[in-house]
User: Which sequence fits this backbone?
């Protein structure tokens, strides 16, 4: 079974520029997550989609970050304009359909991440 | 609210030593508990999980028991190898709020030959 795919793996931009990241979840997984992982910290949830609807975006800085999952499959996360403090690894994860359920469906599977450096 | 607290690292051990990484949690409901591992240059991988009190998760020689009375999920391994060098994250998922994950800050483990 193919895992979660992300691209690019690395990106270097200057502050005030724009950047976009792409994620393709595991086939059949209804739920998709974007996390920000700053060096030395645990991942922080930015946004969670259930199919193509947003479940939770309370920690997404909406003045500069946006995300979409138009057909309920792959997703893009955009930052416009980027700031120095956005330097981090952006992780995408997916899970089967965990809302209200227990057991293996609540396990999240992570992609390799995109390392963003803002200069 | 929900949160996870991990012991701070870094942790350095000699090969074949015993490993314990402490993890405690705070949860409003009945969470599932996880340990994820992140090897250098790679994404997070699920190491083990437990979905209810007294469950024991195990994988690759690692174990952790879901202790509701002490709100803990400590990771243990009897004999570590150099290949276990990685960052370990304790996490909980809150089924009551759409499976939102809460991660600890991670514990870096280095195993020396």
Assistant:
């Amino acid at each position: 079974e193919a895992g979660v795919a992300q691209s690019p793996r690395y990106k270097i931009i200057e502050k005030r520029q724009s950047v976009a990241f792409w994620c393709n979840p595991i086939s059949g997984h209804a739920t998709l997550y974007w996390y920000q992982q700053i060096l030395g910290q645990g991942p922080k949830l930015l946004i969670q989609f259930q199919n193509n609807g947003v479940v939770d975006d309370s920690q997404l800085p909406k003045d500069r970050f946006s995300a979409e999952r138009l057909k309920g499959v792959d997703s893009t996360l955009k930052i416009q304009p980027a700031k120095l403090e956005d330097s981090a690894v952006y992780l995408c994860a997916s899970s089967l359909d965990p809302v209200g359920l227990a057991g293996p469906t609540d396990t999240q599977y992570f992609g390799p991440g995109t390392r963003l450096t803002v200069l | 609210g929900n949160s996870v607290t991990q012991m701070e690292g870094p942790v350095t051990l000699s090969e074949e030593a015993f490993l314990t990484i402490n993890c405690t949690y705070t949860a409003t409901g009945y969470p599932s508990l996880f340990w994820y591992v992140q090897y250098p240059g790679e994404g997070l991988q699920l190491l083990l999980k437990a979905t209810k009190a007294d469950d024991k998760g195990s994988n690759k020689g690692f174990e952790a028991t879901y202790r509701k009375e002490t709100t803990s999920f400590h990771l243990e391994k009897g004999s570590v190898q150099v290949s276990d060098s990685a960052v370990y994250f304790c996490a909980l998922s809150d089924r009551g709020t759409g499976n939102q994950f809460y991660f600890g800050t991670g514990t870096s483990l280095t195993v020396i030959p």
Observations:
- DSSP finds no helices and eleven strands in chain A.
- Residues 100-105 of chain A have pLDDT under 50 and may be disordered.
